[in-house]
Write a structure and sequence with these properties.
The radius of gyration is 19 Å and the shape is globular. About 30% of the residues are buried. It contains 8 helices and 7 strands.
Length: about 260
């Protein structure tokens, strides 16, 4: 794949249904698993491929020709972005998290995908793209679960900084999200019938919000950076959010 034709996104925006030939089992399962293992390692410095690798890793047990084609597309993307990586720079030490969820995105079991991107002083330090453990009955519930996951990670980072005796500029972490109904549910868990399906465990986030340990702020979907970690995006949207994650080409490191 060293001389493969490069491509600008790791995944097609509209995922096509595999045809009958694509549904055949992949011949070399060991090779596929080795490749996905390497890609998982690469996500340590390349969060822009996290969602693609997350989807491929779900096929480790029985990969098909379709999954092989998807993995080759990721390699084609990497070949065009060899010199890309995360940039860290010295800024204030405030914690800002972006939370997002894609409702019922998995075609097999209809489970949603949770994602977060957490920044410390403008530098990305933690991110996640993961299928939720249970099926959500509404987009509100899916977003609420994602907010809970983000809250737990944000508070853990805050406690770690306190333990390291690092003084933060703003003691109140901020979480950005793009779903208004999720905030309404956080403020009033009985405001509509959909809330009765939410597990008690997910009201952890509401407790922290009322206790003044986190602050929620609604933003437009186009500004939600974590959107890149929940679904395949168009070329322009992907490039914009990749830059927002702090993944930039190496020549720009020298000029920053």
């Amino acid at each position: 794949m060293l001389d493969c034709k490069s491509i600008e996104t790791p995944m097609e925006q509209i995922v096509k249904d595999p045809n009958k030939d694509d549904e055949r089992s992949f011949v070399d399962i060991t090779l596929f698993r080795s490749l996905i293992g390497s890609l998982i390692w690469l996500t340590i410095t390349r969060p822009d491929i996290s969602f693609s690798v997350h989807k491929l890793s779900q096929a480790m047990q029985n990969p098909t020709i379709h999954h092989s084609k998807m993995s080759k597309r990721v390699l084609r993307y990497i070949s065009s972005t060899f010199d890309y990586g995360l940039l860290y720079k010295s800024e204030d030490l405030s914690i800002v998290g972006y939370s997002d969820s894609d409702f019922a995105s998995d075609r097999a079991d209809k489970k949603s995908t949770s994602a977060y991107a957490i920044y410390l002083g403008g530098n990305l330090i933690s991110w996640l793209s993961k299928k939720q453990d249970t099926v959500s009955l509404s987009s509100c519930e899916a977003e609420y679960k994602a907010l809970t996951t983000t809250t737990k990670e944000v508070l853990w980072i805050k406690s770690l900084l306190v333990e390291l005796k690092i003084i933060m500029e703003d003691d109140l972490p901020m979480i950005m999200y793009d779903n208004i109904s999720a905030q309404a549910l956080a403020n009033n868990p009985i405001f509509h019938a959909r809330s009765k399906h939410v597990k008690v465990a997910h009201h952890f986030m509401r407790e922290k919000l009322i206790g003044g340990e986190i602050y929620l702020e609604h933003i437009d979907t186009s500004s939600c950076i974590a959107d890149l970690l929940t679904k395949p995006l168009s070329k322009s949207s992907f490039i914009k959010r990749r830059a927002n994650l702090g993944v930039i080409p190496r020549p720009m490191f020298k000029s920053t």
